[in-house]
């Protein structure tokens, strides 16, 4: 489990491509590397990956074909930075909201508004996911726990503060880039339950 509070951005120093999977080699900073063991779970751009090897400051992750298909990890290139968060430990402060590291969909950056006063992103997603992305609700974007701004039928806005831009890779995006999206599980459960109840009632009256 994760909190959506990105701890650092780390450089992808190599991508080892094999049949059915890619192995990411990521350079970890010393404070993130301490105590990290093989088998640990680490979020890379919000995707929960298992540590398969640790060599000095290099950490290796296998990314299987299905994960490559569903996330933006397939589009990574050497030299890019990924948002990193190590898994939640008992007694840790939860500053964001609980994330599983299981990505639901991808969103495309459709507009960037960057001025001296603000940095706003508009992300477009398939309309079906907007049932769970609500104004002032929470959403995981590349592993970052963020509050949703204005919404439409197929898009939502993010208002990013300087601290978020400093600690994550969201500020390096361009129009057309894709972000990994994890919707809030509680919101999904409530929306789906209400829809089922209303559907049963409607069917019972028809």
TrEMBL record:
GO molecular-function term, one example from the UniProt record: riboflavin synthase activity
UniProt cross-references to InterPro entries, sorted A to Z: ATP_synth_asu-like_sf, Lumazine-bd, Lumazine-bd_dom, Riboflavin_synthase-like_b-brl
The keyword Repeat is assigned to this record: yes
Gene3D superfamilies cross-referenced by the UniProt entry: 2.40.30.20
UniProt Lumazine-binding repeat ranges: 1-97, 98-194
Tree of life domain: Bacteria
Gene: ribC
Catalytic reaction(s) noted: 2 6,7-dimethyl-8-(1-D-ribityl)lumazine + H(+) = 5-amino-6-(D-ribitylamino)uracil + riboflavin
Organism, scientific name: Shewanella oneidensis (strain ATCC 700550 / JCM 31522 / CIP 106686 / LMG 19005 / NCIMB 14063 / MR-1)
Pfam family, one: Lum_binding
Coiled coil stretches, renumbered: none
Keywords from the UniProt entry: Repeat, Riboflavin biosynthesis, Transferase
Pathway(s) annotated for this protein in UniProt: Cofactor biosynthesis; riboflavin biosynthesis; riboflavin from 2-hydroxy-3-oxobutyl phosphate and 5-amino-6-(D-ribitylamino)uracil: step 2/2
Biological-process GO terms, alphabetical: riboflavin biosynthetic process
EC annotation from Swiss-Prot or TrEMBL: 2.5.1.9
Gene Ontology cellular-component annotations: cytosol
Domain Lumazine-binding as annotated: residue spans: 1-97, 98-194
Protein name: Riboflavin synthase
Purpose of the protein: Catalyzes the dismutation of two molecules of 6,7-dimethyl-8-ribityllumazine, resulting in the formation of riboflavin and 5-amino-6-(D-ribitylamino)uracil.
